[in-house]
Amino acid sequence: MKKRILFLDDDHRRIATFREQVARNDFDLTVVETADECIEALASGRFDLVLLDHDLGGETFVDSSRHDTGMEVVRWIRTKGLPAGAFIVHTMNPVAATTMFFELQQLGHRVEQAPFGSSQFYRALEELLEVRTHRIRHRRKSLSVRLKEYFRSIRFK
Prior knowledge:
The chain has about 160 residues and is α/β, with parallel strands linked by helices. It has helices spanning about 10-25, 35-45, 70-80, 95-105, 120-130, 135-140, 145-155; strands at about 5-10, 30, 50, 85-90, 110-115. The chain has a single domain (about 5-155), classed as 3-Layer(aba) Sandwich (Rossmann fold).
């Protein structure tokens, strides 16, 4: 059975990059662009890994008290008491990332905090996905290696 990944992000370039990489690894990817869509997806099924952005709608450094942010998803998770899962908080908003990280961790979830495209992001993906599946290592380059190669290839274009 394919591992299920939920990816919350509003940046179409990041979505395209991540969609391409995940497809190569035979994972079932669900992409959502709003907090409401993310909550709806979480309510309808279980995911092996959830990647959460905070600042959505093309905005940056948004107040976490707003209902259109990744923090709203975390508040919903707290309210519903979802079973422990794996999360990567990948926002570039450091205050929101820290808040989301600690909130999810206190709820018993396995959480990594790393901005999308950073070396920590690749390590978190590798660690959390390989805990779930070891076949990546045996068949082809790991997801983190391929993502690093991709970002190096586009960095100076």
